[in-house]
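User: Can you help me understand a structure? I only have the sequence.
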Amino acid sequence: IILTPNIAHPPVVENFWLDLTHVRPYPKRLIESILETFGLTIKESHYQYNNYDYYVVAQKRAYEVLWHSPIYNASGYAEEQKVFLDALKPFPLKVKIEPAEHQQKPELTNTEMRNYVTALQNNTLKQPLIHYQAAPAYLFSSPCAPISIGRTMFETDSLPPGWVEKMNELTEVWVPSEFNRETFAAAGVEKERIFILPGTIDG
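Assistant: Let's start by predicting it. Here is the structure, written out as tokens:
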């Protein structure tokens, strides 16, 4: 993890040499290029503190994940995904987010999380290993990676038409409870695909 002044920001240029601990400025793209030259993968790269600083997170190997879900609305799916994404920070994953909602409300997300999500949206993937989706199952698209995961749920003891077929196309289906595992399996979702991942708690 590298955090350094953003020399491309004019106020930083004006004051950079006033700090005697500063040795030389490093533009963001140069830092990224140096890290990539040493065989590291850029996991996150983004500006913060009103563009005064930028940070770069790099690691030796990162498994690429295409993440398709609501992020910028008030739904339970969106809130849960932000907690999931925050919990994934320590792991060797390079995530590319594609927000699913058409009408986004970024003001519902705090600044720190919004910056993090924006950095993930700006990532580029070469060959995703995992395609993750979170939504009501009828909205799932066809898998576009070797491992496909769908996060979904339904509150009654049966499933709407079209749900079972969508879920049986996936490698795994993540549900929040034993109730969903039982009802999904009873409706025709192949049981070996269903895994329980409990809902999150917003601390």
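Now, to help you interpret it: Residues 46 and 119 are 5 Å apart (CA to CA). The longest helix spans residues 76-87. Let me know which part you'd like to focus on.
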